[in-house]
UniProtKB/TrEMBL annotation:
The keyword Glycoprotein does not apply. It comes from Amycolatopsis tolypomycina. The keyword Signal applies. Keywords: Signal. This is P68 RBP/TagC-like beta-propeller domain-containing protein.
Amino acid sequence: MSQNPVQCITSRALSRRSLFRAGAATAVALGAGALLTGTAAAVDGEGIPASPYIDITGPSSDLFRSKMLHESHHVMQGFAFDNVNRRLFVVQLQNGTSGDDLCINQLSFSGEVLGSMHVPHAGHGVSIGVEPVGTASYIWMECDADGTTTDARGTALARFKFVNGGTPSMKKFLTGSKTITCATDPVYQRIAVRRSEGGRMWYSVFPLASAAAGDFSKPLAHFPQPALSTTSVVFQGYTILGSSLYTLDGSGHADSADIDSYVTRIDMNTGTVEARDITRAGSTLVFREPEGLAVYRTADGETRLFLGFGSRSSMDNVNRYANLFYKNILVG
């Protein structure tokens, strides 16, 4: 049975303007840009205009199931869409490496591998972004990992053109960060950056064009990650759409009946949880593990929130498979 949201916020301790004014003077420069730190902040004190959001309690539909990626022995991690050129990119760890080398897959919308690109010493790939530039797709992702195992995480953001079989020619931003990742909003053309600040995970949101120009000095929003549960959670991905941030958490289980994957919607202007619900998308998959979120708008104008899950054909099979589902009930 689907559970009701475990957290609903019905009051605001501080107004948006008071939150923004409180953080306006706490800028910290890092590498090629700057992020505000310490409390919520926004350009001109207005935040992000309220926008329609996806109903996370609605049903999920399949895009594809049980597709093997370029690296057969590793599950998918983060993924993102190029909404202009109609492309899908999925990141995963590389076969036969120490754990911090990643592979970017370009997939068809039926899940077939169309191309790939290796990115050495990058991190874990929890979340990535894509920026369309003409007919090219530029990948945004973590780089310069802080280790060489599967526990390694990126210390900077990289932006590079996807070239099938090519070597990334990177521009790097926000160097010196800790546990940094990003996600892009293909509808409103923004990028969210998630990283550790003062021992806690924070989100900052910027116009994508400003970020591509190396300007991270004027975030549209900046807020700490709210508590997602009264118990510990395994964070598995995030994405943004308009004024909402969506997160995915949960772990893999041998028993398909043991489902603990949750989607959460957060108001980025206040940093508060607006809805949280269990998802049963792909509930029959073998060793179903949540892996990533992304937004896509179809050519017909339908906005979709995509949920990724890794799976196996059997518990003793070394191969791993990618699965994508989506929710498409837009409210507002």
